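Anyone up for a design puzzle?
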């Protein structure tokens, strides 16, 4: 079982600087490869990542684009893995795009990466680094301090050095044996969870799990700060005499104040991600640890995200992430995840008598069953109906068992 452990790095200033340059190189190589890929497609050639990489290897020490001011190839200062991996990544991205499209799922082809707009990262192959105590020895930069030691034992597959706001992390992929990966379950219950907007998760036990307060507070200050930041940008545009859309290749004068604001905003974003991750990890671990079966709705998340009013709230709770975590953790706890059919009317069935209510507006948080007079909390009722899917008490034929 492939598990990843992300460990915060504590680099020196020089190491920090190298990481930024290596990530920048990986981005530039990706863009070069993508441009070449597109050129070949336009020319009627069927591109192959390996051929494009060979092409790049032929020019990378010669082409003026890849030489520094002294005419030296700067790629020599960056470890090979950082500029070899983007080709494999690009091939993977195209493959995934075509798979998604074939499956009729929304997909976009690989895009060019913009500085400051993409994830800064570069790859290191498993034989190019080693862990020594609380340090990792990386090519070109030597030993870098780790903030914690590797959690898993198993075969190390590779690692990426990734930036988040102004911190760098080492993400190590480890192939852990099924036995080592197994975790002990503490309960054998069957639970239904209704992932919601007003409340992050409602359990069939009646418990409501709220998203953490720090998240709400951080989101509020995010709104304020991004508004402030866009005002600064507007001001810069006015000074530059630009109205509306900024034409490409226009360089706005960079003010110190704006840069500072952008950095603060990036830090805040990173913090929101951390708080949210912490919350979903605790929730999904708990659900898998305490239950034999977890039933969730197969929500059409992308469809719902198209509805703007709901979009913000839903993406805040991180539906996708909760489901992703449930799936891989379930495998470790030997817990079964049951996905309810997208059309299963979990909200509209009465969990008391099973009669289906005709209409239920999104705003109706509570309702009374016309047939048995049971009074329902919308979310609790939905969670109970989901739980029943797995216990077979209700139309079990709509249950779709999902492995892993
Ligand atoms: Zn009823």
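Challenge accepted. My sequence:
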């Amino acid at each position: 079982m492939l598990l990843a452990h992300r460990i915060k790095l504590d680099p020196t200033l020089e190491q920090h600087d190298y990481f930024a340059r290596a990530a920048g190189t990986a981005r530039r190589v990706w863009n070069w490869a993508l441009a070449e890929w597109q050129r070949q497609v336009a020319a009627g050639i069927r591109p192959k990542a390996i051929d494009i990489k060979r092409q790049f290897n032929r020019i990378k020490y010669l082409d003026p684009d890849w030489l520094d001011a002294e005419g030296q190839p700067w790629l020599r200062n960056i470890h090979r893995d950082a500029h070899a991996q983007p080709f494999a990544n690009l091939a993977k991205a195209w493959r995934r795009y075509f798979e998604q499209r074939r499956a009729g799922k929304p997909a976009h082809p690989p895009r060019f990466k913009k500085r400051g707009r993409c994830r800064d990262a570069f790859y290191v192959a498993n034989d190019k680094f080693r862990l020594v105590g609380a340090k990792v020895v990386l090519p070109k930069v030597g030993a870098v301090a780790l903030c914690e030691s590797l959690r898993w034992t198993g075969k190390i597959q590779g690692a990426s050095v990734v930036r988040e706001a102004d911190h760098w992390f080492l993400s190590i992929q480890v192939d852990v044996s099924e036995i080592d990966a197994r975790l002990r379950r503490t309960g054998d219950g069957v639970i239904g969870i209704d992932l919601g907007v007003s409340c992050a998760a409602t359990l069939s036990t009646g418990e409501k799990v709220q998203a953490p307060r720090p998240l709400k507070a951080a989101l509020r200050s995010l709104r304020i700060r991004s508004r402030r930041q866009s005002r600064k940008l507007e001001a810069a545009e006015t000074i530059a005499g630009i109205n509306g859309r900024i034409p490409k290749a226009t360089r706005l004068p960079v003010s110190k104040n704006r840069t500072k604001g952008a950095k603060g905003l990036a830090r805040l974003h990173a913090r929101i991600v951390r708080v949210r991750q912490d919350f979903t990890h605790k929730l999904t671990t708990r659900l898998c640890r305490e239950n034999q079966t977890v039933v969730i709705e197969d929500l059409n998340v992308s469809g719902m995200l198209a509805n703007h009013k709901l979009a913000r709230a839903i993406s805040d709770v991180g539906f996708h992430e909760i489901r992703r975590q449930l799936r891989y953790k379930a495998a470790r706890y030997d817990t079964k995840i049951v996905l309810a059919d997208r059309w299963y009317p979990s909200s509209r069935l009465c969990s008391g008598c099973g009669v289906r209510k005709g209409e239920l507006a999104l705003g109706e948080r509570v309702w009374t069953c016309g047939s048995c007079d049971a009074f329902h909390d919308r979310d609790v009722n939905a969670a109970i109906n989901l739980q029943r899917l797995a216990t077979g008490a209700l139309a079990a034929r709509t249950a779709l068992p999902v492995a892993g």
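A detail worth pointing out: Residues 394-404 have pLDDT under 50 and may be disordered.
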